[in-house]
Amino acid sequence: MAPSEHELRLRERLTRLRNVPLLGGAKLSGELERLQRQLDRIGQEPTDDEIWRSVELARHPERPYTLDYVSRLLDDWFELHGDRARGDDGAMVTGLGKLDGRTVALVGQQKGRDIQERTRRQFGMPYPEGYRKAIRVFELADQHGFPVISLVDTPGAYPGVAAEQHGQGGAIAASQLAMARLSVPTVACVIGEGGSGGAIAIALADRVLMQEHAIYSVISPEGCAAILWRDAGEAKKAAAAFKPDAGHCLELGVIDAIVPEPVGGAHTNYREAARLLGESLRESLDELGDVPAEELRRRRRAKFRSLGVFA
Amino acid sequence: MAKIDVSIETEDKPAPPPKHPNTCPSCASHYRDDELERALWVCAQCGHHFPMHARARIASLVDEGSFFEEATDLHSEDPLGFFDLRPYTERLAEAEMSTGLADAMLIGQGAIEGSGCELAVMDFAFMGGSMGSVVGEKLSRACDSAAERGVPLVTVTSSGGARMQEGILSLMQLPKTVCAVEDLHDAGQAMIVVMAHPTTAGVLASFASLGDVLLAEPGALIAFTGPRVVEQTTREKLPDDFGLSEQNLRFGHLDAILERRQIRPALARLLRLFG
């Protein structure tokens, strides 16, 4: 590509980014610097290798999971279990805790560390029961005025016979609907794999964040490669084509901000990763704190209804 | 160990005769175009429901001359510059040529037995009915149009899911359509969904499941994850009617299964009830 053409493309991307409702209504101190950092990051088009590195880091077996952040960020954590209808899904963790002294409801997918836990938690792939458990806790938060934090980390919703019979598609739709209705502030952060419908089910939030090396995508790189290249081994090519990295998600207006990770990835320093995540969550909740409920709901729906690129 | 000369075996095998598109996949009866059209693309022998194009579907549902198409100017873009084995723009152009549609959904105003409604009808022939930005936007506009005119929305779905070529933006059409339907509900209007074969993945996991009344055609695959993927990933043995409308009805996920010719009168009755 000729340099002039490349420059034009870059400028166009930056203009588009400035039009994204980024950090709307934020207080300005510190924001400009962060904005500039994020603009710089987008200025440099990530290479295919860098995108693949994020895929690998997002799935790193030692990456911190939802409960690793819960124990470092929330006081008085009390886990809530069960969907009050059929069961308790280990892939979906829900509970109440205190963030800076205020009660918040937390919902998040949880993978397992060892093989027993992984099996018990279905590798972070919820059944419909998991989504119905999340809905129950969203409604509980709404009832009591607790802000909602959701941490997204799933390869996708569980693809099984029972999951289908129990209404996986309907449960994912219902969970999004429950979030669209909430009159409390909501912040979602993709902390690992944001896999397809299983992820968006708990990510219809006022602010959507993404960790630097998380991925957020409509299908897994392997799934995409199997369908379009007819070869799951072409996953790296598929990832490069559909760009699941945080930089591209920010550019497309899908997320509001990128949460930095410790150098080398979140798994290298849990404490620092939690501190950085906590900072972003607090900032987002502060920004949303004064917005009246009706306005929150209106803005949330208007934001998601504006997503898409067409002519 | 016996050696088998594979090359001879394969070369001798005669190529299967090309299947006529009007051949019934379940009983092998075949039909002339006009026969099939008169039967609303339902096999007269065994009742198999052939896929139906969006324009034919609309014609089969609304009062003659009542349909007025909306949002005809919307076209897909290629936000990612997506290129798999072929460029996305080429696939789009090809789908447009072969279907005569701008994308996988048509929306517009119409009337069924005199009751006004908004329609949003999908076409599987356009890239597997996949939902990208244009389908999301059209469904969203259909909700607004229904709310503005104070009429219910009738949605006919047929889709393999989100359109991979638009990456994360196609996933965002799930929350987009969910929010649009919720705004329609807030405006006091209903959505009636008719699920045709197949209604899967991203479309099932968003607006299709949020209808006030959920109807389906017989034998339609209605599943978040299709049978092949479930079998491959979990190695579970699948029940015979896995994911079909019949199973979904039994498990309580649908209000009714209706044969194609029953759909128009059923919609007319529902529109009178909600009107």
Radius of gyration of chain A, CA atoms, in whole angstroms: 19 Å
Order of helices and strands of chain B: HHHEHEEHEHHEHEEHHEH
Q: Which segments of chain B are poorly predicted (pLDDT under 50) over 5 or more consecutive residues? A: 5-10
* Biggest sheet statistics of chain B: 8 strands, mixed
* Major sheet of chain A: 8 strands, mixed
Cα distance spanning the termini of chain B: 75 Å
Q: What do these coordinates show?
A:
- The complex is a heterodimer of chains A (311) and B (275).
- With 311 residues, chain A is an alpha/beta fold.
- Chain A has one domain: 2-enoyl-CoA Hydratase, Chain A, domain 1.
- In chain A, helix 3 packs across helix 11 and helix 4 packs across helix 13.
- The longest helix of chain A has 20 residues.
- About 2% of the residues of chain B have low confidence.
- Chain B folds into two domains: 35 residues, no CATH class; 224 residues, Alpha-Beta Complex (2-enoyl-CoA Hydratase, Chain A, domain 1), CATH 3.90.226.10.
- The termini of chain B are far apart.
- Chain B is globular and about 60 Å long.
- In chain B, helix 5 runs parallel beside helix 7.
- Chains A and B meet through helix 7, helix 8, helix 9, helix 10 and helix 11 of A and helix 5, helix 6, helix 7, helix 8 and strand 7 of B.
